[in-house]
Design goal:
alpha+beta, Aminopeptidase
């Protein structure tokens, strides 16, 4: 896509990334009652994202015509899950991806994912993992178009308690 630039986020981008975090979490909040309001948690979440990305990952931003279009954050993860073969325990992890509403439908998420895959692939990972809410059909379709396939499925059952 012409006039789309994907680059590593700088300190000057953090306010825009924070807006993306709010957008992402408000969207997820509409899909599932477990999510806190975006504004309520955005500062702490941005700090958490930056801390993890600084270790062995990156936050990338997409700009379209000079306008912030979205971001992706991810890093290399090493798990100790004993049931997995050793070479499956190290992978690239997509923590967050968001394309701002005005820029959706232009395959920017695909470009962001590709850039993150290239970056983490250069660090030696041979597979990527990400998750999304089950009710986020557009995101699931976009990931599957990019070659991602379901790996594990987590089920939830809400139990009646004193407050339920």
């Amino acid at each position: 896509m012409r006039n789309l630039v994907i680059r590593e986020a700088t300190e000057a981008d953090m306010a825009a990334v924070r807006r993306g975090i709010v957008e992402l979490h408000e969207h997820e909040r509409r899909l599932h009652p477990s999510r806190r309001p975006g504004e309520e948690m955005a500062d702490a979440y941005l700090a958490w994202l930056r801390e993890h990305a600084a270790r062995d990952g990156v936050i990338l931003v997409a700009e379209r015509g000079g306008d912030f279009a979205g971001f992706v954050g991810g890093w290399v993860r090493q798990e100790d899950y004993i049931a997995d073969l050793a070479d499956w325990r190290r992978f690239g992890y997509v923590s967050d991806i968001c394309v701002m509403p005005a820029h959706r439908g232009r395959r920017i998420a695909a470009r962001l994912l590709g850039a993150l895959e290239a970056r983490l692939g250069a660090a030696g990972v041979t597979r990527m993992l990400l998750s999304t809410l089950a009710g986020n059909a557009p995101a699931r379709a976009a990931y599957e178009r990019e070659g991602y396939a379901p790996y594990e499925i987590v089920y939830e059952k809400r139990l009646r308690g004193e407050n339920g």
